[in-house]
Amino acid sequence: MNKTITKWTDSDKQKLGELVKQYTIKNRTNWIQIAQIMKRTPNQCKTYYQVVLNQFNSKNCNTQWSAQKLVQLVTCVAIYGKKWELIRKLEFQDCSAEQLRQRYLLFQSKKQFRTEIANRILNCEQLHPEDFTQKAIDFFKYLYKIYFKCEKPIKNMDEIITLKIMNLNDEQIDVKLLIFKIYNSLPQQYKIQCDEQ
């Protein structure tokens, strides 16, 4: 079933919530039946209900996700990769690994929102000296990719960043400053302003 993706209205949200109550028996929800009524795919209904409406198994994860919480999730993925169970144990004990995965997929699907969060990270996050290791390198590479919308690999990126980090003696380094210092120090051929995909 290939349904056209349309924006969820307030009445859609209310209707979905009512249908989930109606078609859930013994903790099993009939997403196929709900999808037929909603004129969407079962996966669209299930994902929207579990992630956006925050009706997942973990009670404390049911509150609206703030931008700060989403920044925290994006930062964790930048540092640890998509190791959802690890991220859950370290930072999001009140959420399930699946909810974190779905929340991140939703974040990735919204280009404008992704850029906004990237900007929040660039403007707010700080790195401490003990983090100036592979984590800092991975973090920069990730931010470079989403901030400059560039998928092309940068040759010698690790060496360039490591050298730049070693030359910084500040107790705390603002990531935005660090990124643009590193970016400005890159050879011209790496300063690629990629088109939006």
UniProtKB/TrEMBL annotation:
Q: Does the keyword DNA-binding belong to this entry?
A: yes
Myb-like domain boundaries: 7-53
Tell me which domain of life the UniProt entry assigns to the organism this sequence originates from: Eukaryota
Q: Where is the HTH myb-type domain?
A: 1-57
Q: Name one Pfam family in it.
A: Myb_DNA-bind_6
Q: What is this protein called?
A: Myb-like DNA-binding domain-containing protein
Which InterPro entries does its entry note?
Homeodomain-like_sf, Myb_dom, SANT/Myb
Q: Does the keyword Transmembrane helix apply?
A: no
Example GO molecular function term? Answer: DNA binding
Gene3D superfamilies in the record: Homeodomain-like
User: What keywords are annotated for this sequence in UniProt?
Assistant: DNA-binding
